[in-house]
Amino acid sequence: MSTVPAPIELEPTKAQRRHDLDALRAFAMLLGIALHASMSFIPGLPWPVQDTQQAGWFMVLFLAIHGFRMPLFFLVSGFFTALLWQRRGPGGLIRNRTLRILVPCLLGLVTVVPAISVLPALATGRSLVVSAADDGSLIGAIRFGDAAAVRARLDEGAEIEAPDPAIQARPLSWAALRGDLDIARLLLERGADLKGLNEDLSTPLHAAAFTARPDLVRLFLEKGADPGVRGKDGSRPLEAARADWELVKGIADYIHIPVGDREEFERRRAEVIRILEPVSPGSAAVASTETPRATGPFMGVLDAYEAAMGSERLAYKLGGQRFHLVKSSVFAHLWFLWFLCWLAPLFVLFMAVATTIGLPRPSRRLVVSPANLLWLIPLTFVPQYFMGIKYPLLGPDTAEGLVLPPHLLLYYGIFFGFGALYYFTGDPEDRLGRNWRVSLPVALLVLIPAGIATMAGSRPLTALIQAAYVWLMCFGLLGLFRKIHPEENRAVRYLSDSSYWLYLTHLAVVMTAQVLVQGWSLPATLKFGIVFAGTVAPLLLAYQLLVRHTWIGWLLNGTRHRPAPAPEAEAPAATASA
């Protein structure tokens, strides 16, 4: 006689705490700090701080972590969301998520996110954000196109080669970025070095090519600029001229310079390339080194989707600045909270429908046995196919904007939904991830190299490899943590409680530490360790002294009671044992 799977029930129930998942959630948070701490040591990676000591292995570390960390976090979040739903009901879940997720997200927008630019400036004297106002400097006048002010500030003794404190670009490069021919000529007349290097080893010719300024490219070449000089990332001016539009637009918005609309920019870019190709040494080789993107079927659909996500119809002028609903950064590293603010009510809506129609629980075997890969990998393949349309990358895209890209919402929704499904089906025999001794080595030693090798090649193949990688890592780590941490451990529980605070506040501290060690003559690996430890240690101290037993700790984690003092009668024994 066949049995019908039991329907999902709404009645709140007690559930045994999963200490392994608490620890795993903390692990995912700490990996995020490690990932950001590594970024200044990765050659060629766009990051506000570029360390003088870099190493290529950090890129492998970055890709390995990025490829699974946030999907794992959303999987665990889905599990605990389902637990809350069954314990407290839909109303209790929404109240909890509002208090623990939405409120910290909104508070973070006015505290944590501004601190990313303010704290490094206070600690080091160097801002990581380019001001939108004229600060009275030579570069300030250049950025506003005020030739008279440029001349006056030069007459007053302004240093013509002094870089700005944010991106460390020299005045002539700023004139090139802005496309101001008259100011560039004035600077050259006053002795500006056409071959002077910026912090990233780029030249004014790189800057003019990058923002598609054909008149300035001609001027610099006439004055003796070298079209074969390479920047820190190995690119020459011709390669800079081939940079993707979204990259150019994003950097232009960040440093507050006009580049025109896309049609105008592409026209200027084509002219710059026509000028540079005949004079660039090995121009065919230069063209071949441009970062390719993975190709495959439905590329027209992908291009149309990417164009829709970056459409100027989604852009507005706010306070004189361009704001794009999808592309402009709003939440910085707090973007995951914004996703959870949407996934939690969507989960409640789904469960309301499921309980109304009596949707049965899926078979436990479909969720916890290795057969789950037969449906999870194809399901994840679909949104993964839309990742890295412009910039090949192992792992998911990033999204810090106000409007969530549909493919990313679907992608993280799959992991969130699987976590909830895992909770509802249960796993009393600990079958999920049982083969972690096999899945983790296969993921790290086979799929990571394969993913890196194919991420700029066949799109179907790389999407399949990356979908397999993320699930093997998730299941492998679930099994590993179930093995090593099945019971409560006070130290691990403390770290789990503090990890939310650590991750919310870490980025400003990471960047400050990166700026402080930037010029040290130490190995990159040692400096990375200093940045990581120099971030976690003070934030843990702040958590204990300023957060854990205050309203902030209550907001993030609920009430955490202080240890009760020992009874007076036991005081002598305690002293003796000490």
Structure in words:
By secondary structure, the chain is mainly α. It has helices spanning 19-38, 57-66, 69-110, 112-124, 138-143, 147-155, 171-178, 181-189, 204-210, 214-222, 237-241, 245-255, 262-276, 283-288, 299-309, 335-357, 364-368, 373-384, 406-425, 436-454, 459-484, 490-517, 524-547, 551-557, 571-577, and strands at 315-318, 321-324. It has 2 domains: 19-123 and 327-557, no CATH class; 138-307, Serine Threonine Protein Phosphatase 5, Tetratricopeptide repeat, CATH 1.25.40.20. Helices cover 61% and strands 1% of the residues. A two-stranded antiparallel ribbon has the order 1-2. Helix 1 (19-38) crosses helix 3 (69-110) and helix 18 (373-384) packs antiparallel against helix 19.
Task: Spell out the blueprint of helices and strands.
Blueprint: H1 19-38, H2 57-66, H3 69-110, H4 112-124, H5 138-143, H6 147-155, H7 171-178, H8 181-189, H9 204-210, H10 214-222, H11 237-241, H12 245-255, H13 262-276, H14 283-288, H15 299-309, E1 315-318, E2 321-324, H16 335-357, H17 364-368, H18 373-384, H19 406-425, H20 436-454, H21 459-484, H22 490-517, H23 524-547, H24 551-557, H25 571-577
Helix pairs in contact: 1-2, 1-3, 1-21, 1-22, 1-23, 3-16, 3-19, 4-22, 7-8, 7-9, 9-10, 18-19, 18-21, 20-21, 22-23
